[in-house]
Structures are given as structure tokens and as C-alpha cells.
Amino acid sequence: MANTPIGEQLAAVESLADRLLVVAPPGCGKTELLAMRAERMIRDGTVRPGRRLLAITFTNRARDNLRERLRQQLGEGRMRTSVSTMNFHELAARVVEAHAPVIGLERGYTGPNPSWLRRAIAALDLDRQRAAEVRDLLQSVKREALTDAEVLARLSVDDDALDIERARQAENYIDYGDLLRYAQLILRNDRVAALFQAHFDALLVDEFQDLSLQQYELTQRVANRNVAYVGDPFQGIYGWAGAAPEQIHAELEESCEVITLTDSFRSSPAVLKVVNSISADLGAPALEAVEPERWGKSGGHAYAANYPSDTAEADGIIALTDYLAGKYPDDRIGVICRAAYRRGALDRAYERASHQPQFWDIALDTPRVASLLKLHARHVDPAASFADQIAELQERVCAAVPPTDVDTLTEVQEACEQLAEHEETDVSVASLVNRIRDHQVVSAIAPGVHVLNAHVGKGQQFDWVVVMALDEGHVPSSYSRTEAALLEDERVLLVMVSRARKGLFLTHSASNSNQYGRVFRNDPSRWWKQMEAAAKPMPDNVARLLKVNA
């Protein structure tokens, strides 16, 4: 079904600027805006017959969600003849496949395979920390536009990384970072860039705050007119993966017409009051609910609950989610924790809950990958070590995926890496795989209770959200010791609280224990007081439900 722009959206949809920046905070209709702008440019001839509009984003799920929304807005015919949707690895693969000789890359190369780097690192017999250091070094070096010779020179400070890179080049193998790096080098050739710029009359870039400098350059070279960047710099939470939200936002503000949205189509006024208490710290604009009267006299719900221990906190959360799932069977309830280690008491308590949750411990973007993992996990040797089971599962699934399907292979690798992090939990690989949530439609979340960690929830929305464990040392993390790291942690908090539509519940516990029984004392998060002040006073019936006095 096609939408029409509402309020602030109209200026962003109708803008004729060659370069446009739309700052779209959570719940402001970003995906719908992208689809409506695409429809306008195709309808008025900005995208000429025989040319195309390129819509680009990051993950398979985001790509498929955007593609479906574009199809609903444009119809199948215009979508097929005028629009290309892809993510960065797809774009890079097409650039490299068509123009590899420009940078002297030999034909006959093999494309990304998640098992290649794992095997190369395993052959060096490194411990886990050292293996992670080598992997991080290889990835960081390849985020720059370096030739193969320059990469080798840069890696000369680390013999292990250097050995792996020499082997990669000798085998004429292209890893994920190489794919983007080669595409960047190729598109620096003006003649090649001109071919893409002649083909694409317009470009839409989703979630600009997640761009690395390398990806940003790719967008600049592949299209040079009718370009729109849409996203929210205050949701930039992937600095650890190379994203540069502050730098890119500053550059876009200098070079683009800027439109900022402040109308929230998602959240109730009560939820937005808490969201705004965090966003104000970050310098983000305050959001207002569209049609606040639709939330009734209460204006929605937002409460903050303190507990003496993580077990009491878990009991209160389960009492709440059981109540909500029973009273509102069609609603989606999200329980979000910054990191899995702090969720132990809750995970154990859910074993006795009336409404069992879906755990999002393994973050996947497509239903197909979940199905493949579950299918092949049945055939993994249960007598093997945990690490060998993970390796066998990855090998089996990758063998079933075409080598040209770069992003599916990436997701398989990421899923197996997440599985490997659970080695010390005494849970089998098969049990972990069964925790992967089932979803048949990419953009849909099934009604019921969902338990997830912070980064997995980005881009999602729930009717009711519990943000738990708002303890200093967890939110923000005790590992966040620099100003930049603390800033990113506050953005993570903003992402968590802004997932809620009807109601938001914040929890803190004065103590928690780890898997070995050691008890830790907790102060409330440094952001707790401002959120607690923005929340509603808790009525007695809600306090009883949450067991805050137990």
C-alpha cells in the first residue's frame, strides 16, 4: 500500500537538492520516507527511462525490508525497471567482478568464504585473544584504500597477520575486507566511476550513521546526483566495526541540504519523555508523538523499578511479561539487556515462566540462514568438542550456500562466531541453534516475549519494552573508559529505550552474581536519575505487578 508524506516528511520527499541529508530519529518513518522519495523521483522523471535508482543499506534484513517497502510504494513494474536495492558487499562484488583488471586483479579469484580466515588462523595455533587481535588487525588495515603491496607493508609489524595475508594473495582469494577495498580502489578510476554515475540517476543511502569512511567513499563514487543520506547520527553504535558517525555527519552537514524530522509515528508521549531525556544529552532534537490523543488519557506508560538483586529483578520482569503476554496476546514484548553476561538470573527464571520467550542470542538477518543452521545442526557429531562442533556446522552450512552469495556466507560466519562465545555455558550447539528465533517474514516480529541484547534490537520495535540491568559498569560498560566509548554507550541506551511503542519499563538491581556465585554490588547507571525523573510515578498496581516491594 502506497503512503503519502505527512508533516515534516513532505519537504524531504519533495526536495530537489542534488545532495540531501535527512536526520530521522527513531520512529520518524525513515523507511517509508525513502520509499516515498523514490516514488517521487521516478514519477517526475528525475530517474530517467533506461536509468535506475540505487537504494543501498548494510544487511540482508535491512535490504529486504527496504526492497519490500519500495515494492509496496512503487508497484512491481516500476520496481523492476527503475530500482536496484543492494547492500555494500553486493555493490562491491559487482564492481570487482566487472572491473577487476583496472587494479591488476587476476581473473579466476575465489570470493569470500567465512571458513577461509578461520582455517588460516587455526593453522597458526593461536589462543583466542591472540586470534582476535590478528583478525582485528587484518580488518582495520583493509578499511583503507591500500594496494596489496601496501597491505603487506602495513602488516609487517605482525608476523601472524602478515603470514595470513601472504597466503591469501598467493591463493588469489578475496576476503570480505578485500572486496570493499578493491571496489574502493577501482572506483577511484574516474572512467569506471563515470560508468556507474551514468547508470544511476539517484541514490538513497539508508542508516548513514553506520557508514565507515570506506563505504562513504563508495557512495560518493557510484552516484553524483540526486543523492540522499537518511539516518540518525545519535544511533551510531558501530564504531567498533569501523563506522565513523561524527565525521560523516559533519561532512554531510557541510555538503548537503539538511532536513531534520521530529515527529514520532512509533512511540507514546510517555515513552518519548524518557527517550528525550537521553537524546537531550546527545544534542538530538526532542521528539513529539504524532496524534498524541490516540494513546488515550494515560499517554502511554513509562516506569522505573529498583531491585535489591538480579534474582528479584528477574522475578519482577517475568511477572510483567507473563501479565502482558496474557492480557495482550497480539502484542510484541521485548526484554533488552546491554550484554548477555548480565542476563543469567533472567534466563534461569524464564524456565518457569508461563509465556516462554524467543531468545535472540544469535543475531541473524534472514530466515534462510536460521533454517540452514537448524537443518545442519542435526548432523553435527555431538561427541566432538564444542569448538569442533561449531567448525563442522559452519563447514556444512557454507557448503550448501553458493560461493557468490557473499552476505549469506557472512551471516553464517557471524552466527557461528556468536555460537562459539557460548562454549562455557554447558549448553549444546544444537540447543543454542534452537534459540535462533523463527521468522518467516524479514520485517516481522511474532507476538509474544522476546529476549535480546542491545545491538540485535537496532531497527526493531516492540509494543512493550523492558530495558534491564541499568547498572553502572553495564550501562555504560566498565570497558568504556574514553569519552568516545562512553558516547557510544549512551547512543546504545538511546537505541534500547526507543524501541518501545506503548510502554517502557526500566530496571536496576543493587547486586548481581555471576555463574560462579560471586556477588557484585551495583550503583545505578549514570543516566538512571534523568530517566527515572522522566518516567511516570509508579502506581500501586504496577508496583505489585513488578514486585518492586517484594
Radius of gyration: 24 Å
Number of domains: 4
CA(first)-CA(last) distance: 49 Å
CATH architecture classification name of the largest domain = 3-Layer(aba) Sandwich
Spatial sequence of strands, sheet with the most strands: 3-2-4-5-1-6
Overall mean pLDDT score? 91
CATH homology superfamily of the largest domain: P-loop containing nucleotide triphosphate hydrolases
**What global shape is seen?**
globular
| DSSP summary, beta strand count | 16
- Enumerate how many helices there are, as a single number: 23
Described by its quaternary structure, the protein is single chain
Write the topology of this structure.
Blueprint: H1 9-14, E1 19-23, H2 30-43, E2 52-57, H3 60-74, H4 76-82, E3 83-87, H5 88-99, H6 114-122, H7 128-141, H8 148-154, H9 159-170, H10 176-187, H11 190-199, E4 200-206, H12 213-222, E5 227-231, H13 245-255, E6 257-260, E7 263-264, H14 269-282, E8 288-289, E9 301-307, H15 310-327, E10 332-337, H16 344-349, E11 358-359, H17 367-377, H18 386-399, H19 406-420, H20 429-434, E12 448-453, E13 462-467, H21 483-497, E14 500-509, E15 511-513, E16 519-521, H22 528-534, H23 540-546
Parallel strand pairs: 1-5, 1-6, 2-3, 2-4, 4-5, 7-8, 9-14, 10-12, 10-13, 11-12, 13-14
Antiparallel strand pairs: 15-16
